[in-house]
Specification:
DUF115 domain-containing protein, three-stranded antiparallel sheet, alpha/beta, globular, 305 residues
């Protein structure tokens, strides 16, 4: 009884402090409130880049094409990108926004930029955090392809009382911690008020690929659906710019905890907004959302080829 009372008081004080810090951050960045377009269809499909997306695309391609399609990060590297012609694309990796013409070690970003400029010949909305404004990449896209409309979202992480954080999320003044780009994409699509959001390719199975070498270096094999698996090897995950130290096992699993906790936060927020999230990934460790195969048809105007 006493222990429960102490825990309750501790939680209240923790939420109060987090709320005050969040309000302070919002007061500084509030002028960057997110302005989102209305949905084009009642249902959208958020496509993660996990290996299982190949299976989902093979089995659910027709269904996915009937929905508003949301892709993330390096999805454009896949040949199927120009067949899907996604209406929405979310990039949250900060490395994209420090990339310049002189950058020599990020051919993946250079490839994505080239595809955006040369192959996107349909209307597509690109969502990026507000701190990306003025970056080399966004400048090239905004000047080089008028088919791509850039929408800047406010990535201010807010915590605290649910009633406050939900209000800040809804107003576009803050977001949950987006440990992965999928969390950012889902938050944006919840706020656009889709009736149903289907999630594909969200394997979230990085722990299966963690290794430790004889020097206690943390290695991970990061596999995406568009990769040739035989070319992917375990690589050190460095925690410093000098590439001297890798992340510890404890920090890696703490990062994974933040990912799964983020999905739980989004589940509750989606329920609050009356939005249904269905995890239709062929393989996934996410247990926060309803698990169900994608439906057979979607109501709404026909998708243009």
């Amino acid at each position: 009884m006493v222990e429960a009372s102490f825990n309750s008081i501790s939680q209240f004080l923790s939420d109060l402090f987090a709320s005050l810090v969040s309000l302070l951050k919002v007061s500084i960045r509030g002028r960057y409130a997110t302005r989102l377009p209305n949905p084009q269809l009642p249902v959208c499909s958020v496509l993660g880049n996990g290996p299982s997306l190949n299976e989902s695309l093979a089995e659910q391609f027709d269904f996915i094409r009937q929905t508003e399609i949301v892709c993330v990060n390096n999805f454009a590297h896949a040949e199927i990108f120009t067949r899907l012609r996604p209406q929405d694309y979310v990039i949250s990796d900060p490395n994209y926004f420090v990339f310049t013409e002189q950058t020599i070690d990020r051919d993946d970003i250079r490839q994505t930029l080239s595809i955006f400029l040369e192959q996107v010949n349909w209307q597509m909305t690109l969502y990026v955090p507000h701190f990306a404004k003025g970056s080399y990449l966004l400048g090239k896209i905004e000047r080089g392809n008028t088919q791509i409309k850039v929408v800047y979202f406010n990535y201010t992480v807010v915590r605290g009382f649910k009633w406050l954080t939900y209000w800040l999320y809804t107003k576009g003044l803050g977001m949950p911690q987006a440990q992965t780009v999928i969390i950012a994409a889902l938050t944006l699509m919840i706020n656009r008020k889709f009736e149903t959001i289907y999630l594909f390719g969200a394997d979230t199975s990085w722990h299966e690929q963690i290794r430790l070498n004889d020097q206690n270096q943390l290695l991970i094999k990061q596999i995406h659906f568009y990769d040739k698996v035989k070319d992917i090897t375990h690589q050190p995950v460095y925690s410093d710019a000098q590439r001297q130290r890798t992340f510890s096992m404890a920090s890696q699993f703490l990062s994974l905890h933040k990912v799964f906790r983020g999905y739980e936060v989004l589940r509750d927020y989606a329920d609050h907004r009356g939005v249904r999230i269905v995890n239709a990934s062929a393989k996934s460790y996410i247990d926060a959302f309803e698990r169900k195969p994608a439906g057979q048809s979607v109501k709404g105007p026909p998708v243009q080829s």
